[in-house]
Amino acid sequence: MSSSLFGADDLHFFNEGTHERLYEKLGAHPRVLDGAWGTGFSVWAPNADAVSVVGSFNGWDASATPMRRVASSGIWEAFAPGVGKGALYKLRIEARGRVFEKADPFGFLHETPPATASIVWDSQHRWGDERWRRERRDRQALGAPMSIYEVHLGSFARVPDEGWRSLSYREIAPRLADHVLAHGFTHVELLPIMEHPFFGSWGYQITGYFAPTHRYGRPEDLMFLVDHLHQRGIGVILDWAPAHFPNDAHALAQFDGTHLFEHEDPRKGFHPDWKSHIFNYGRHEVRSFLLSSACFWLDRFHVDGLRVDGVASMLYLDYSRAHGEWEPNQHGGRENLEAVAFLQQLNETVVRRFPDTLVIAEESTSWPKVSRPAREGGLGFGMKWDLGWMHDTLRYLARDPIHRRYHHEEITFRTVYAFSEHFVLPLSHDEVVHGKGSLLNKMPGDRWQKFANLRLLYALQCATPGKKLLFMGDEIGQWREWNHDSEIDWGLLDDPSHRGLSQLVGDLNRLYAREPALHRLDCDPAGFLWVDGTDADHSVIAFLRLGGPGVAPVLVVASCTPVVRGHYGVGVPIAGRWTEVLNTDAEPYGGSGVGNFGGLDTSDEGCDGFPHKLSVTLPPLGVVVFVGPAPWHGTREQAHVVHDHSMHQHATHEPQARHEHHQHTTHEPRAGGDGDTSGSR
User: Fold this and answer.
1) Is residue 327 flagged as an active site residue?
2) What CATH number should be reported for the domain holding residue 648?
3) Percent helix / strand / coil, the chain, rounded to 5
4) Are residues 248 and 330 located together in one domain of the fold?
5) 129, 362, 515, 522: which is the annotated catalytic residue?
6) Residue 532 known to be catalytic
7) Cis omega (within 30 of 0) for bond into 81
């Protein structure tokens, strides 16, 4: 009786490194074979001397369910009659006089750690997300608003009456959706939910590349969560970690007694930072394994994208290695050519099979064309995290405002490279752990100024070209670092300052989605135009966001000192009334109420190379956003001429000249945050 699920093509594509659906073949699959109901098991272990399935159904007897080789593919298989969903099992591998009991690399469900057995499973879910999937291409286009809420499921919320346990996939679904929608986010990004033995790894040390962690429920429960979010109009991105895997004895490490999944050479196969193994991207079957894992989540769980962790560590052979600890490639360089080829293959595969989904790179170096197609010499990702923007902006805002004038380039440098990639602007979990402090506590000054600076940060993120990402808890201004062993400090929302910050985040996300100029050309240089990026003396920047023909421009002016500035001249291209649509210093957000009475009319004085001028009241540590009275029909070339003229003008003339009418009022939060309220809304 033949039990093989593998045809000749399957074996060929697997050994060639191009099989994308191994989850349909390898692992444990309940089925009927020759009239007998049971489960077929298969595993890749080419260097094993013998393999058997041991489990709850055969008394864990190594002789009860032996496996046989499938041709010369390195695959072993067996069929166990009468075995069905819920049975526990492991793969017993004999190799070179040693015996290993391993979890199934293709297992769809595993015991909750620290238990290590795999579980025969066949997930069933009736999906109701057809509308979302029809609309997904438009919702995830480069010109669509995309604001991502990054979530660690285990610490979003807990159940105090049950020992502070984490919520299950089903329990968290409505609560997470309500919170995301209340704050205007378009997507959630889940820190890795693939099975992992150590909870404190946050999911980045994966042992089950085809199994959601059992901690929060079963696979169909995760399907319910994704489906619920989709039906509420929310996209789902999964964090996925193909850069390394842990050395736990029951998992992938030395799987068949040899370095099967990991590179044998420790200079290529061991990660010095994470003390974990690195996949051998040059091995064809390993590429098939990883390709199939990526496609599995997009296919079976309907997720809308993958965020690939640790791409920089994959690209460079000398990543975190000293001289002599790495070996150059065949051309003498430090690029990991096998990893580059795999990433290109991964992205080409996803584009072909799931063209309306996204693959996003966490890549921290200046590697060129990360988000350009492989045919153009790129890596093929849809987007890339802009970690440079994050570092520069946080470093700038962490400075005492009195010193910011000497570091103005930290807040303006980003435009030099802003459109070299398709960027996501991340304020992620990495910025609020390991002693870095919460975002709120990074900010300088007293309590009022800390909140004002944080509001300033969030407004700059919203207005800067690129998609947005914010880690959970940052939207309410947590004082403490993120702790994966507890929940978000929801009680802070009883405080008006935290509640105001939460309201601001929602208003910013809704403004970003509502105004086409803020998102339509997020990844196009025609969507951004400096008005003045050179006023270091006052730590003020002003720029326009443009959405193309028929779209009203958006003016953004940010004042990065705790000073009220009246009659601050800002050039604009269109005459008429510019409506103030957001002010981070508005009282409902916890600000002092300094503003522009809802809008300003232009004068005919030229300013900043533009024909018209607004006299703006700038709030302390605040951002004001205006929408123009009509679409601007200037061309991209005209925009560049104005941009060049404006930057040249203020680089070669005394900046104080056009600011001679400014009123400077130092903001005094101890006086109730009133300051100069002559422009109060």
Assistant:
1) no
2) 3.20.20
3) 30, 25, 45
4) yes
5) 362
6) no
7) no
